[in-house]
């Protein structure tokens, strides 16, 4: 089973983890590292690196970060480049991405898990108005 780390600003990681647990129950090897206002970036980056190193059992670790270019992303990128830690990272964390990662992590290798999670995250971003209009058009045909 591939471990998952949620790396976000503020309490977003804890909140989305709690939300996922409401839907699918408690999951093993899902942790979060939150960057709070005033936190030192170096300390945060070390937490990400240490947590990934502790969780990795040989198959790597998936890190889901909230924002491309944000400090959590930068900490993960620095960990990938500088530290000897086997991780992959996706940005744009959303519930569909997380639920797919949780569901598929026992059946996929790390790179497959990245792809499956990415597809789910992107495909579930929709405009509700557009979706309702499509349904209305289908109903009138």
What does this structure look like?
There is one protein chain. This protein is of the alpha/beta class. The protein is 55% helix and 15% strand. It has 6 helices and 4 strands, in the order βαβαβαβααα. It has a 4-stranded parallel β-sheet, sandwiched between helices. The longest helix has 15 residues, at 41-55. The radius of gyration is 17 Å and the shape is globular. The relative contact order is 0.17. The model has no long low-confidence stretch (mean pLDDT 95).
Average predicted local confidence, pLDDT:
95
String of helices and strands: EHEHEHEHHH
Helicity range of the residues? 40-55%
Number of strands: 4
Radius of gyration: 17 Å
Annotation field: number of helices: 6
Beginning-to-end CA distance, first to last residue: 46 Å
Uncertain ranges? none
Question: In percent terms, what proportion of residues is strand?
Answer: 5-15%
Largest beta sheet: strand ordering:
2-1-3-4
Biggest beta sheet attributes: 4 strands, parallel
Based on helices, strands and strand pairing, what is the structural class? alpha/beta
What general outline do the C-alpha atoms trace?
A: globular
